[in-house]
Amino acid sequence: MHDATAAGMSTRADDTLYQDYAGWKKWGGEFEASDFEARYFAAELADVEIAGRRVLEIGFGNGSFLHWARRQGALVVGTELDAAMIERARAKGFDAQAESLDVLVQSGQRFDLVVAFDVFEHWDTPTLIAKLQQIRLLLNAGGRVLARFPNGQSPFGRVHQYGDLTHRSVLSASSVRQLAHMTGFGVERVGNACRVPVRRDFFSRLKHYWRGVRRARIERTLARLYGFGRLALDPNLSALLRKDDALPAASTTAPQATHPSNQPGMLHQ
Predict the structure, then answer these.
(1) Are residues 82 and 210 in the same domain?
(2) Which residues contact 210 (CB under 8 A, 6 or more apart)?
(3) Mind listing the pLDDT tens digit of every residue in the chain (269 residues)?
(4) 151 with 93: CB under 8 angstroms?
(5) In a domain, 268, yes or no
(6) Contact status, residue 123 vs residue 218, Cβ threshold 8 Å
(7) 189 and 247 fall within a common domain
(8) What strand order describes the sheet that includes 75-79?
(9) Looking at the structure, do residues 224 and 145 belong to the same domain, yes or no?
(10) What would you report as the CA-atom Rg of the chain, rounded to the nearest whole angstrom?
């Protein structure tokens, strides 16, 4: 099969996979963070000041992070593929765009923080490298990237990883460190995504605490049993990367993606 024919078939298959993706995800366009989501976002960004900072969310989906970040005083911009979600975001007063990262780079936009919740796994490896290099160009000096993705080093990550036909890459803590090294980022942390209690009441918080103790014990036990360092085993990992300003700009060149699933948007877990 000729490469052009194969590429065309791949594009059509991707179009089919993303038909009514928002409907399958049950995105209603509320653009409001629940109490649980607000506490989760606050935990992930506990060490990152966002008030008054420019923040870009890639694939904003139902808009819960955009809502939360704006309430914290951030100047938020979001990208998304789903036209209906973009219109709903704009109706709520958000700066929502359909543009690719390449367009944002060429337009000279800059951000202090880029977030991508449940997005990286939708890009194959060459595309992921290219996107990270574009993100680096979008960041101000010392800018950060926060990403969450299924845990490819854990059997429990398979629930999310193989629960969506649009997922194209499997990521672990080690492979994220490799990606960071290749694309001009330092790794501030990568491990289990932040855990917060489902509710605020005392018994929910107590149950949450003991669940964390038991999970940590399992991770330590498996590390001793198999002789490797302790591995994060939660279903999702999160990574906080920082732009390495010492690297030359030439390290940010990369081939561009060619099919729809390699564009930002419609990419929430």
Answers:
(1) no
(2) none
(3) 444 433 343 444 566 888 889 999 999 888 999 999 999 999 999 999 999 999 999 999 999 999 999 999 999 999 998 899 999 999 999 999 997 899 999 999 999 999 999 999 999 999 999 999 999 999 999 999 999 999 999 999 999 999 999 999 999 999 999 999 999 999 999 999 999 999 999 999 999 999 999 999 999 999 999 998 899 999 999 999 999 887 654 444 443 443 333 333 333 33
(4) no
(5) no
(6) no
(7) yes
(8) 95-97, 75-79, 54-58, 111-117, 139-150, 236-243, 185-192
(9) no
(10) 19
Would residue 269 count as lying in a domain?
Answer: no
Q: Which of 116, 144, 152, 128 is nearest to 268 (CA)?
A: 116
Class of residue 77 by CB neighbours under 10 A (exposed 0-12, middle 13-18, buried 19+): buried
Question: pTM score > 0.85 for this model?
Answer: yes
The angle that helices 64-71 and 35-44 make with each other, rounded to 10 degrees, is 70
Q: How far is CA 232 from the centre of its chain?
A: 18
If you search the block for the tokens 């078939």, which residue do you land on?
9
Distances (CA, A) of 155 to 45, 158, 177, 235: 27, 6, 20, 8
Please report the pLDDT score of residue 248 as a whole number: 57
Tell me, what's the pLDDT at 14?
A: 67
87 with 180, same domain: the answer is yes
Query: What is the rounded distance in angstroms from the CA atom of residue 66 to the CA atom of residue 33?
Result: 8
Do residues 113 and 228 both lie within one domain? no
Residue 65 structural domain: 3-195+234-262
The residue to which tokens 């729809």 are assigned: 260
The domain tally of the chain equals 2
Tokens at 72, concatenated: 């914290």
- Residues 186 and 180 sit within 8 Å (Cβ to Cβ): yes
Taking the C-alpha atoms of residue 111 and residue 139, their distance in angstroms, rounded to an integer, is: 5
Do 211 and 81 lie in a common domain? Answer: no
CA gap 135, 111 in Å, rounded = 9
Tokens 């942390």 belong to which residue? Answer: 189
